[in-house]
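User: Glutathione S-transferase. Structure?
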Amino acid sequence: MAGKPKLHYFNGRGRMESIRWLLAAAGVEFEEKFIETPEDWDKLRSDGHLMFQQVPMVEMDGMKMVQTRAILNYIATKYNLYGKDIKEKALIDMYTEGIADLNEMIIVLPLCPPDQKEAKIALIKERTTDRYLPVFEKVLKSHGQDYLVGNRLSKADIHLVELLYYVEEIDPSLLANFPLLKALKTRVSNLPTVKKFLQPGSQRKPPINEKSLEQAKKIFR
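Assistant: Predicted structure:
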């Protein structure tokens, strides 16, 4: 019997959090090996396990996988979260890439110099309400189904709901004009596997703060 996937990253969100969300939504238990010191980081690189000298890295099914999108695609394919045919997969990819564009802006926000943060937040809010969320609201309205693609849960829904939580952390009012997205968030959040992941004490990570950011900077020197 194969062991649990093992996730190698620092103890924070970053680019690993979407992987945690997807595994959790699929009902897959996983272990985490946190990179806590510069020595941990040096050892992981010197062992030759990081193809491009970068994390995230996930040990799964006898592989040591790197590159976030490759890992996500593998998990989605394995657990039937990637559509029923090539056309559905293309739609899922398009939606996921749009989600990733906005998510990337939010991920790097803690790294923003203090004198630029207000402007960055304003840009995120503008892109959220004027560019990205209207697309997904329109998709749901156009077909009247419960999920973005094929009326079944896919990785696009999971990534989008993760993003909606981050958007609410910035400003809860940003979702006010998107009732179908709020309904999707509720629907996915109430799935038993996701509901478990959202409970206190799960492997879901909190927003990065100044202390955790400084720790990460010391590790990845």
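The radius of gyration is 18 Å. The longest helix spans residues 114-143.
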